Amino acid sequence: MESPVPPSNVVIAFDDTRDYSQDELHFAIEGVKLAGCILRRGDTLLMLGVLHKVLHPLGYQLRACPESLTGTSIRAMEEEVSKKVDLYVNMLQKSAEKYADQGVSIEVQITAGFPIKQVIVQEVATCKASWVILERHLRRDLRFYLKQISCKIALIQDSFSADILRPHGASDTDDIEHKLFYTLSKSVPLSNDQSSENSEQSVISCRSYNPLSHSSQENSIMFKSNLTASSSYRSQEQKFLLDFPPSYKQKESGMHTQGENRYTSASQIVQKQHKHVFQQGSLEAPILCAACGTRTDLYLKDSMRFNFSQIRIATNDFSKENLLGEGGYGHVYKGKLKDGQLIAAKVRKEESQQGFAEFHYEVYVLNFARHKNIVMLLGYCCKESQNILVYEYICDMSLDWHLFDKQASVLEWHQRFAIAIGIAKGLRFLHEECRGGPIIHRDLRPSNILLTHEFVPMLADFGLAKWKTSDDPVYTRILGTLGYLAPEYAEDGIVSVRTDVYSFGIVLLQLISGRKASNVDKEEQQQPLRQWAEPLIQKACTTRAHRSSS
């Protein structure tokens, strides 16, 4: 009679500097489960996110190297790791409930360190995983992982299926130099356990390796403190651990923690074996903005078509109080559907000459544009001469308002930096990752960039968007906004992804300087932003070149 397979740790490793939705995480876990031979009853699924870059409070990014960070940077790293852990714990709660009856518990661990591939190898070895499943964006270092990781390996494909790369362990892996890193882990609780008397554990550890020390003496320092938490945990136990890697064998410490958690050697991370009663749950609409609680359904219903009466009721009969703005296409109204979904209804002007073409094209293009930094089209409505596009509602005005309106607060540098990164991510998706080929926006400017209360930028207004189906130049009539048009587009009507890149450069200059691209409202003739900025940029580059050569 064969003995039952003991519970093990299964690791899903991912790059935490990227943004993941609740559904992406859910589908990744589903793909691993459907593989059949990876997850078993009693296993612990560890969602390992590696944060290899952190944002400095002044707005620039740093490598997440704890040994080279000090003071403010260390605190920023700790805060970012803690925020990420809480975010993923909340996002994975429904998944944890779903897989409960199969005896699989889920844990989140975020580790700050650099380089990412070395951190993954080190953490997988530390938790003694039986399987490691690499997220699809880690495929570029597959050869390294296959050589350095001793356990079984799989890869999550773009379709979220798990492709098994090595169904057996390897014993001929190379030793690597272990570096200092900072990590925080938490078990994913169930919704019905949040008021439980039982206290969960979070583990904070900072590990390093001294290549000059070969002593087998125990070299771990642990500090414990009981905290009263305001989160879903009634209390938390925090530990700071300094230890050596598993390649240098040390005596068992025999130190014990709460419940079934136990350190068998100084190189092990606490493994939680909490047993819960799971309940089946459905995924809620993900939060678009945590500040105001706005949510948006990620997936469309069977039909994108709305009834005119639905939109009229949602917008209070297109009342003036709900009017958000007016553009060349038409009026935009705020509304609320019966299910609570906030919408922005874009109603075409009857006298608009280009409205019908824009309408059909925008519906078609936005079917392929689903990204965190792109405003999502929820549906449309056609009624006689009225064409209406229904978008998700973005809660905190446009970038143009935040930059130039007198009532707006001045944006902090870290906010400007985050906005620039988000815009770049949205453009990269349109140009490189959109299914069906690159989409060229053609009218990127601050008034077409909407913001949430968390300053997440969302690209909007795709009425002028152009589909790029080949590498040949596209010639078209010139449409767009003065001051943001690339020279080859303004002069010859040539459209390419560089058209948007040029506009993005102008937006970057506006984020830095707070100046308008061209101010035609002022009586004084203001120099165009590009002409104003070029000599300053050239001077800065020359100064930097002189400093580098001296």
TrEMBL record:
Entry keyword ATP-binding: yes
EC number from the UniProt entry: 2.7.11.1
Catalysis: reaction(s): L-seryl-[protein] + ATP = O-phospho-L-seryl-[protein] + ADP + H(+); L-threonyl-[protein] + ATP = O-phospho-L-threonyl-[protein] + ADP + H(+)
PROSITE patterns in the cross-refs: PROTEIN_KINASE_ATP, PROTEIN_KINASE_DOM, PROTEIN_KINASE_TYR
Domain of life: Eukaryota
Organism whose genome encodes this protein: Carpinus fangiana
A molecular function GO annotation: protein serine/threonine kinase activity
Enzyme class at the top of the EC tree: transferase
Domain Protein kinase positions: 318-550
Protein name listed in UniProt: non-specific serine/threonine protein kinase
PANTHER family referenced in this protein's UniProt entry, alphabetically: INACTIVE PROTEIN KINASE SELMODRAFT_444075, OS01G0750732 PROTEIN
Protein keywords: ATP-binding, Kinase, Nucleotide-binding, Serine/threonine-protein kinase, Transferase
SMART domains: TyrKc
Gene3D superfamilies reported for this sequence: Phosphorylase Kinase, domain 1 (3.30.200.20), Transferase(Phosphotransferase) domain 1 (1.10.510.10)
Positions with a binding annotation for ATP: 346
